[in-house]
Structures are given as C-alpha cells and as structure tokens.
C-alpha cells in the first residue's frame, strides 16, 4: 500500500516539476542570474558570526543595502516576476542590515578605547 502511495506521489511530482517548461526555465538567465548571485547573501550570512565588527566596511555595507533594495524592487517589476531573484536579495538585505547594525554598534555605540587601532 505505501509503495503505491510513494509511486503515485513521485509520479505526480515528476509530472508537475520535471516537464518541458521547467527545463526551459532552468536554462534561462531568470534562473541562473539569481542562483549565481546567491554567493553574496551566503557570504554575508557567514560573515555575521565569523567576521570581526572592526573589519566591516560601513560604506560597502550601505551600498549593498541599497543594491539589494533596488534589485528586490526590480525583481517584481519585470515580467515575468522573478521571485528567485527577490528571495536572493531579501536574504542579502537582512544580512547586510545586520552587518550595518554591527558596524554602527562597534564604531559609534560602544567604547573601543582599549582595542588597538591599525
């Protein structure tokens, strides 16, 4: 009984997702652009815990916040809407805002007089 259900579920999945339209989409820039762009938010998320706050670039973080906001808007303004691109930049927006808070906290809200400045 359960193998029939599993077979039916896998057949349904294959019919719904493994079709001509899916493969056509996978070979477009609408897919590969956001996929290749995911390196930025992945690096930003990893930097939240691994990068010391004194090495964060405030201007670059601000630029990436604006960049992701613009591309989130762009991703839903084009036809067809590119939700993969939107998700990529949404993740990056949260990661960069987090880095921005760390930057502001380190440089403006805490006393770092004991730390060595290079």
TrEMBL record:
<keyword id="KW-0496">Mitochondrion</keyword>
<dbReference type="InterPro" id="IPR005336">
    <property type="entry name" value="MPC"/>
</dbReference>
<keyword id="KW-0670">Pyruvate</keyword>
<keyword id="KW-0812">Transmembrane</keyword>
<keyword id="KW-0999">Mitochondrion inner membrane</keyword>
<dbReference type="GO" id="GO:0006850">
    <property type="term" value="P:pyruvate import into mitochondria"/>
</dbReference>
<keyword id="KW-0472">Membrane</keyword>
<comment type="similarity">
    <text>Belongs to the mitochondrial pyruvate carrier (MPC) (TC 2.A.105) family.</text>
</comment>
<keyword id="KW-0813">Transport</keyword>
<dbReference type="Pfam" id="PF03650">
    <property type="entry name" value="MPC"/>
</dbReference>
<comment type="function">
    <text>Mediates the uptake of pyruvate into mitochondria.</text>
</comment>
<keyword id="KW-1133">Transmembrane helix</keyword>
<dbReference type="GO" id="GO:0005743">
    <property type="term" value="C:mitochondrial inner membrane"/>
</dbReference>
<protein>
    <recommendedName>
        <fullName>Mitochondrial pyruvate carrier</fullName>
    </recommendedName>
</protein>
């Amino acid at each position: 009984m359960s193998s029939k259900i599993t077979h039916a579920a896998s057949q349904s999945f294959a019919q719904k997702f493994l079709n001509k339209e899916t493969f056509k989409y996978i070979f477009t820039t609408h897919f590969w652009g956001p996929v290749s762009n995911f390196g930025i938010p992945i690096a930003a998320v990893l930097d939240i815990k691994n990068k010391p706050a004194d090495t964060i670039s405030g201007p670059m973080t601000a630029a990436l916040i604006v960049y992701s906001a613009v591309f989130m808007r762009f991703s839903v303004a084009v036809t067809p809407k590119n939700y993969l691109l939107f998700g990529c930049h949404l993740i990056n927006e949260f990661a960069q805002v987090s880095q921005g808070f760390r930057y502001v906290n380190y440089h403006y809200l805490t006393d770092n007089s004991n730390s060595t400045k290079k």
